[in-house]
Write a structure and sequence with these properties.
With 613 residues, this protein is α+β, with helices and mostly antiparallel strands. The chain has 20 helices and 20 strands. The longest helix has 24 residues, at 11-34. The two termini are 45 Å apart. Residues 231-244, 259-270 have a biased composition (Low complexity). This is DAK2 domain-containing protein.
C-alpha cells in the first residue's frame, strides 16, 4: 500500500493506519504466535492481535462506505468532499468500536483499550478535521494510561510497559505527527528489547514480550502512515551488557541472544530455533527474576504452574457501577482480568476455573453476549511439549459460518466446525482460518453461507492452503444451502467427488428469507418503508408486505412455482411457531410430494429462512 506522506492525522490517515497495521500483523503473526509464553503459552497472541485490528479496520471501512453511498466523490477521493466524508471523530470512534467488539485474547483486549484511549482524545472536538503532533502526543499518553487502568494487576515487562514507553517518548518529541509517531515507535522498540530483563520467564524462554512485539508493529504502521516509509530495522539501544537483538522488520526479533542481567548460561542463541515452553520457565527457579507465578507477559497477573482451566471472554452491556462490581467479583474468581470499554459496552476477559461463575457474574452485571469459553484441558497450553501427545489429524472436515445458535447446534451435530456470525457482526478472515485449524484435518470444505463473505472466505482458504491444508470453498450464499451441502457430505469418498456433490446440492437449493425493513429504501419490488415485512428470494427483495405469515406464504409460493422436493424452514428468535405450522400446512395441501423440515435458528437476524431443493 503506497502512502503519501502527510503531517497531520485525519480520517483518511486513520483508514490508512488500520490497513497498514493489519498488513504488518499479518506478516508477523506467526512470529508473534511463536513467542507467546504468557498468560498461557497457547501460541495465539499474533492471531488475536490480527483479528482485533481486522475488526477495527472493517469498522473504519464501513464508515467510509456509508459516506460513499451517500454522496458524490469529492477532493482526495472522499465522497462529497470534505463535508461529505467521515470526520476524524467518525473514523477513530469506528476504529475503537470495531476493536472493542472484535478483541481477542489478553493482548487484543489491551490493544482495543489503547485504541479507545486514543479515540477519546482525538474525537474530543466533533468538528475537528485533523489532529496535529500535539494531539497525537496527548492521544498516545491517554491510551497508555487507560490501558493500564483496564488491567486488574499490571506487570512490567509487558505490552503495558511498551505502551508507556511509546507515550513517554512521544511526549518529549516536538514536531508534526510523523515526528511524534517515529519517537513513539523508537521508544516502544527500545522498551520491547528490554522486556526479557523485566520478566524472568521471558529471559529464560529467550523471547521478548509477544503483546509488546505486536504493538511495535502497529506503531511502525503509524510511522509509515505519516512518512510513506516503513521504519528501517535498527539495533536496539542498550549498554554493553544488553546483549544483542536481531532486528528483522519493524522491531526487535522475537528471540534474543542474551539480555541484561541474564547469566551467560541462560542466553539463547537466536539461530538455535528451539522454543522453550512457558511452563518450563514458570516451573523453573524464580529466585533470580522479577517474575513471580502471578505475573503476566501480556499485561496482567496470571496463574502459576497449571493455571486456571478456562479463558472466558464476552461483550457486556452494563453501566459503570455494575462493571465496577463485576471487576471485584471476577478478580476473586481468577486472574488475567482485563475489562475494557465504556459508554455502556464492555469487553471482559478473564482466566478462571469456574467458567459458569464468570458468565453468571456478567449476567448479574448486565447483558453478556458473544460469549467465548476456551478450555485449557489436558495436553493443552499448560503442558510442556514433552508431555503433549499430538492429536492425529482427521482426513476431512467441514467448516461452516452459521447465523444463529440453533443452526450452530444443527451443523455441529452433523460433524461440522462452526463459526457463529451474529447480525451485523460478520466473522473476519482470521476467524475462519482459526476454525480451519481447529478442525484439524488434512482436507477442509469451507461453507461461508453468505454472499457477502465470499471474499473473506476466499482469503481464509488461501491462507490455510499456505499452511499445507487442502481447502475447497463452496460459495454457499445462505445457511439453507449449507444444510443441503452438508446433507450429501460423505467423508469416505474422494475429496473432489465430495466437493462436487456438495456444490451441486447447494446450487440446486433456492434460498429466501423474511425480514423487517429498518428504513425507507428502493428495492426490486418497489419502495419499502421502515417496519415493512420484506420477502427476499436469492438475495433480492421480491415481496413487500405488512403481515409476516402472508409475506412468507407469498415468498414460498414463488419459490415452489419452479418445482421442488424439499422445503427447509429456519425460524429466527421471536418468530411465532404458528408461522411454521401455517407454511407446513400450505405445502402439504398445495404441493404434492414436497416434504417440509423445520429448524430453530436462534438470533439469526432474519425472522425466517427458507430453502427449496
Amino acid at each position: 500500500m503506497a502512502q503519501v506522506p502527510q503531517t497531520f492525522l485525519d480520517a483518511l490517515a486513520v483508514r490508512a493506519w488500520c490497513g497498514l497495521a493489519l498488513e504488518a500483523l499479518g506478516r508477523s503473526r506467526e512470529e508473534i504466535d511463536a513467542i507467546n509464553v504468557y498468560p498461557v503459552a497457547d501460541g495465539d497472541t499474533g492471531t488475536n492481535l490480527y483479528l482485533t485490528v481486522e475488526s477495527a479496520a472493517a469498522a473504519v471501512e464501513a464508515v467510509f462506505a456509508g459516506h460513499e453511498a451517500g454522496g458524490a466523490a469529492g477532493p482526495r477521493g472522499i465522497p462529497g468532499g470534505a463535508a461529505g466524508g467521515p470526520t476524524l471523530a467518525d473514523a477513530v470512534r469506528a476504529m475503537a468500536h470495531g476493536a472493542l467488539i472484535g478483541a481477542r485474547g489478553n493482548s487484543g483486549t489491551i490493544l482495543a483499550q489503547l485504541l479507545r484511549g486514543m479515540a477519546q482524545v482525538l474525537a474530543g472536538e466533533e468538528t475537528a478535521a485533523r489532529a496535529d503532533g500535539q494531539g497525537l502526543r496527548l492521544a498516545l499518553r491517554h491510551a497508555a494510561d487507560s490501558a493500564r487502568q483496564a488491567v486488574a494487576h499490571p506487570v512490567e515487562g509487558t505490552v503495558l510497559t511498551v505502551a508507556e514507553a511509546a507515550a513517554s517518548a512521544a511526549g518529549g518529541a516536538e514536531g508534526d505527527c510523523g515526528t511524534v509517531a517515529r519517537a513513539a515507535y523508537e521508544g516502544a522498540r527500545a522498551a520491547l528489547a528490554a522486556t526479557p530483563g523485566q520478566l524472568a520467564v521471558l529471559r529464560r524462554a529467550g523471547v521478548v514480550d509477544a503483546g509488546g512485539r505486536g504493538l511495535v508493529a502497529v506503531l511502525a504502521a503509524l510511522v509509515e502512515t505519516f512518512t510513506g516509509e516503513a521504519p528501517r530495522a535498527m539495533p536496539a539501544a542498550g549498554g554493553p551488557r544488553s546483549g544483542s537483538v536481531r532486528a528483522t522488520g519493524p522491531g526487535p526479533h522475537a528471540r534474543v541472544r542474551q539480555v541484561d542481567g541474564a547469566p551467560a548460561g541462560d542466553a539463547v542463541d537466536a539461530g538455535e530455533g528451539e522454543e522453550r515452553h512457558a511452563c518450563v520457565a514458570a516451573r523453573g527457579d524464580l529466585a533470580q527474576g522479577a517474575a513471580e507465578p502471578g505475573e503476566c507477559a501480556d499485561g496482567g497477573a496470571v496463574p502459576g504452574p497449571g493455571g486456571p482451566a478456562f479463558e472466558v471472554i464476552y461483550l457486556l452491556e452494563a453501566d459503570d457501577a455494575a462493571v465496577a462490581r463485576l471487576r471485584e467479583r471476577l478478580d476473586g474468581l481468577g486472574d488475567s482480568l482485563v475489562v475494557v470499554g465504556g459508554d455502556g459496552l464492555w469487553n471482559v476477559h478473564v482466566h478462571v476455573d469456574d467458567a459458569g461463575a464468570a458468565v453468571e457474574a456478567g449476567v448479574e452485571a448486565g447483558r453478556p453476549y458473544r460469549i467465548r469459553i476456551t478450555h485449557f484441558g489436558a495436553g493443552d497450553v499448560h503442558t510442556t511439549g514433552a508431555e503433549r501427545s499430538p492429536r492425529e489429524r482427521a482426513q476431512r472436515a467441514v467448516v461452516a459460518v452459521v447465523p444463529g445458535e440453533g443452526l450452530a447446534g444443527l451443523y455441529t451435530e452433523a460433524g461440522a466446525t462452526t463459526v457463529l456470525a451474529r447480525p451485523g457482526e460478520p466473522p473476519a478472515s482470521g476467524e475462519l482460518v482459526q476454525a480451519v485449524r481447529r478442525a484439524h484435518a488434512r482436507e477442509v470444505v469451507l461453507l461461508p453461507n453468505d454472499a457477502d463473505l465470499r471474499h473473506t472466505a476466499a482469503a481464509a482458504a488461501e491462507q490455510a492452503r499456505t499452511e499445507g491444508i487442502r481447502v475447497a470453498l463452496i460459495p454457499t450464499r445462505s445457511a439453507v444451502q449449507g444444510i443441503a451441502a452438508l446433507a450429501v457430505h460423505e467423508p469416505e469418498r474422494r475429496f473432489d467427488e465430495d466437493v462436487v456433490a456438495m456444490t451441486s446440492a447447494a446450487g440446486a437449493t433456492r434460498y429466501g428469507e423474511v425480514t423487517v425493513a429498518e428504513h425507507q429504501s428502493w428495492t426490486m419490488a418497489g419502495i419499502c418503508q421502515a417496519g415493512d415485512v420484506l420477502g427476499l428470494i436469492d438475495g433480492d427483495v421480491a415481496v413487500i408486505g405488512q403481515d409476516l405469515t402472508a409475506t412468507a406464504e407469498a415468498v414460498l409460493d414463488r419459490m415452489l412455482a419452479a418445482g421442488g422436493e424439499m422445503v427447509t424452514l429456519v425460524l429466527g428468535e421471536g418468530t411465532p411457531e404458528d408461522v411454521a405450522g401455517h407454511l407446513e400446512t400450505r405445502v402439504r395441501e398445495g404441493y404434492l410430494a414436497v416434504d417440509t423440515v423445520v429448524y430453530h435458528g436462534g438470533r439469526q437476524g432474519a425472522l425466517l429462512l427458507i430453502g427449496v431443493e
